[in-house]
Design brief:
This protein is an alpha/beta fold. It has 14 helices and twelve strands.
């Protein structure tokens, strides 16, 4: 009998409907409305699994875990045998253990040869272990979880079902969803939230929890994206998700129940520093265009990701604050140090700050790296500057004509309201640049006959 895990209606008989209804999917770029029915590529089966094909491969990366690995694998095996109706395998990926973990993993493989596989790597690194085992796996869906099983295993089926049905490309557990139930210390909670907020600002990430050790990916997608992932350690997860999002892939999020492992040996400070270096490296690579995300997007038939409004607003606000400070500093330098007239100094400083503001919002806030259209965007930025001045001046003139002796407080409120209107208008206009870029990227990727799914 053939197992047909298809994109078409129905998918797998078990879980396909759930995949479309479970909340939390973040869409990187499926946009059927952007094509006419004649241009839309025909849906193809995600996989066609012949008897004996492994549908799910769950990798458990381990380093010196001799006291926990046996109980972990046995518990995971019991859970999969009782809840997962398709062929599966558990892969123990030992990366550099020296405490006997490797021997225990080999013993587990010997006891359960049809369901457990033991892999040993001489070098340490969770990312290295995952990249190696996922790349070598013949399974159709690839997953991993931490050896401490901090995540409740009841979330495993909701994690992989959207991938098996063809609804999503990757799936991640999230501890930061409002319906997640998480038991961990205040310090770790604070660090986790700050890290993910930083990813939103620095890389425009739209996913909510990069470091939860509970993820899955379709094998065909993994073959495209894994060669681009460089980090061999803890930043592997973040890099994988950022590249997937920039490639227009759909990331499904599953709220999880998660219980902190009191025996965790993760070096929080060292990991944080490595993550910061990883963020800077990925940011440089994305800005320079070195990564092949455009090629992945075209080969998989995705459109350019539209970006997440929350992160865009945060970056837009940060750019606004920085350009305001630049404007004030420029005015002080021109007027106070160089003796330029106040009006001339104000206009020149404001002009420079506006050009910098437009460039920063274009490249950082909305992720537009192409030079094409840059001059037109700068002209629109200057037009928005004129609009801002016209709105504020017009509001004050209107107030003066209706209330000549209006108090300063009222004038300030009216002026602030006009600035809010101008700022929202500016954000909307600049965000439209991103949508125009997405449409052009889609047209370039699909040509006349649509992309290849």
């Amino acid at each position: 009998m053939t197992l047909d895990l298809a994109r078409s209606a129905g998918g797998l008989s078990a879980g396909a409907d759930d995949a479309d209804t479970v909340p939390g999917s973040r869409v990187g770029g499926h946009d059927p409305s952007a094509q006419t029915p004649q241009d839309q590529p025909q849906a193809r089966p995600l996989v066609s699994a012949e008897p004996g094909t492994t549908v799910l491969d769950v990798v458990v990366p381990v380093l010196n875990e001799r006291h926990t690995i046996e109980a972990c694998v046995e518990r995971l095996d019991r859970h999969l045998r009782s809840t997962f109706p398709y062929p599966f395998r558990i892969t123990v990926a030992d990366n550099g253990s020296t405490d006997g973990t490797r021997e225990i993993a080999a013993d587990l493989e010997e006891r359960m040869p049809d369901r457990v596989r033991a892999v040993h790597l001489d070098r340490k690194g969770r990312g290295r272990a995952l990249k190696s085992t996922w790349s070598a796996s013949g399974a159709l869906v690839l997953a991993y979880m931490d050896v401490d099983l901090s995540t409740d295993l009841d979330a495993l089926w909701p994690l992989v079902a959207p991938l098996m049905s063809g609804h999503s490309d990757l799936a991640i557990g999230t501890r930061l969803h409002r319906s997640s139930r998480v038991v961990r210390g205040t310090k770790r909670e604070f660090i986790s939230r700050c890290y993910n907020a930083g990813l939103s600002v620095a890389l425009g990430a739209g996913f909510t929890d990069a470091q939860c050790g509970f993820k899955a990916i379709r094998a065909d997608v993994a073959r495209e994206i894994l060669p681009l992932v460089e980090d061999p350690a803890w930043f592997f997860d973040t890099e994988l998700l950022v590249l997937a999002e920039r490639s227009g892939l759909r990331i499904h999020e599953v709220p999880v129940d998660w219980y902190d492992d009191p025996d965790s040996r993760v070096d929080v400070v060292g990991t944080a520093l490595d993550d910061i270096r990883g963020v800077l490296r990925v940011r440089r690579s994305l800005r320079s265009g070195e990564l092949g995300v455009d090629g992945i997007r075209r080969r998989l038939g995705r459109t350019m990701p539209s970006g997440q409004t929350g992160g865009q607003v945060m970056r837009f606000a940060a750019v606004g604050v920085a350009s305001t400070l630049l404007h004030l500093a420029g005015f002080a330098a021109l007027h106070g140090l160089l003796g330029m007239g106040a009006q001339a100094a104000n206009v020149l400083a404001l002009l420079v700050a506006t050009i910098v503001n437009t460039s920063a919002n274009r490249s950082w806030t909305f992720g537009i790296r192409e030079r094409e259209g840059a001059l037109w965007h700068q002209l629109q930025g200057l037009a928005l500057l004129v609009l801002t001045w016209a709105l504020s001046a017009g509001a004050l003139l209107l107030l003066d004509s209706t209330w000549p002796q209006a108090p300063t407080a009222v004038q300030t409120v009216i002026l602030g309201g006009s600035m809010v209107i101008a700022t929202v208008t500016k954000f909307g206009v600049m965000r439209r640049w991103r949508r125009e870029g997405a449409t052009q990227g889609h047209d370039a990727g699909t040509g006349h006959g649509g992309g290849v799914r």
